[in-house]
Amino acid sequence: MDITHCIQAILSKAGNHIHGRDSEDSELTYSSIVEWKQVCGLLSVPPGGATVDDGNDENVNNKSKNELATQDENSQPKNINDVDNNNKSKSTGENNNVHDNNTTSSEPPNRKEWYQTGYEYWEDESNCPATVDGVLGGFASISQHDLKGSKKFLMDLKSEIRPELKFGREENGGAMTRACECGAGIGRVTKGLLLPLGLSQCDLIEPSPRLLSSAPANLGDTYSSQCRFFCTGLQDFEPRPNTYDIIWIQWVIGYLTDDDLVEFLKRCALALKSGGGVVVIKDNTCEEEAFIVDRDDASVVRSLPYVLGLVELAGDEGCVSEVPGGVSGEYFSGANYCFEAEDLT
């Protein structure tokens, strides 16, 4: 069973919403996740025509979960210093050989278009100036509040749940500690949260060359010298195993398709340092439906059960720690949730 039908069945079986809507057109609604993806070309239509099911599949169990993706220890994302014309294809998901999701269908017909739309939106300076206000969609006023909440989340996580988590060298026997900011933009979280916590190094992963090239100036000389800059989409990001103490993923999972998000989380699990590393996701969620689609920038806001269901499909739901009440938007509630390497293996 493919990821789309799996997640829909998981939600339906638990009594959660499976319907969704468009973010702008109130009359554009979808009865199910399967219907939305088939209409939008994000799910391959099986031979014989489209079949929109109601999600009542009782055969969802551990056997439906994909095996962990294997990693090439020598694989590396592209450094910003090596940016060239290949960045666009990497950022828009045009590398067809990156992932094999073990589904029964071929790649969805509009997968490349989905990533291309998002890439072009964020590359357009009129949509997103290379400033804090720009990357936050005109809400620079929430940045400090957001960072303060994120710091509290990590401090509480370390003191109450994950004492093995390391921030600075002194906690790590003098060895370097490393973080990764996914969908980094100009490095707002790296500058305001991760490096001030004492982490030795931070990798910034961002598909927009325009935004990433502005990150060193935003960070300043000192912080910039502690960073590496990789220009690639998360659907193509293949970090080395056993590398990071913290992988921070904020306001970006909506730009990944379900299949690519599941595979990305598997790779994140392998990239965590054993015995202490954590992945933290901070994102908006919707409550009255399973998903809300924004066609302008090719993104989707998912419900919390939807996101946690995808985490489950990436491995084991296990010890997921949730702290409700992240920064809330005008229409969406916010949530922090994290999982450890053991939860996805």
Keywords:
345 residues, alpha/beta, seven-stranded mixed sheet, four-stranded mixed sheet, 10 helices, globular
Short description:
The chain has 345 residues and is an alpha/beta fold. 32% of the residues lie in helices and 16% in strands.
Radius of gyration: 19 Å
In what order do the strands lie side by side in the largest sheet?
5-4-3-6-7-11-10
Give the helix level as a range of percent. 25-40%
Count of helices? 10
Characterise this structure.
32% of the residues lie in helices and 16% in strands. With 345 residues, the chain is an alpha/beta fold. The strands form 2 sheets. Strands 5-4-3-6-7-11-10 form a 7-stranded mixed beta sheet, covered by helices on one side. Strands 2-1-8-9 form a 4-stranded mixed beta sheet. The longest helix has 19 residues, at 143-161. The model is unreliable at 54-78, 81-90, 94-105, 316-332 and 341-345 (pLDDT under 50).
Secondary-structure map with pairings?
Elements: H1 3-13, E1 20-22, E2 29-30, H2 33-40, H3 86-91, H4 111-123, H5 132-135, H6 143-161, E3 178-182, H7 188-194, E4 201-205, H8 209-224, E5 227-230, E6 246-250, H9 258-271, E7 278-285, E8 291-294, E9 299-302, H10 304-314, E10 321-326, E11 333-340
Parallel strand pairs: 1-8, 3-4, 3-6, 4-5, 6-7
Antiparallel strand pairs: 1-2, 7-11, 8-9, 10-11
Helix pairs in contact: 1-10, 9-10
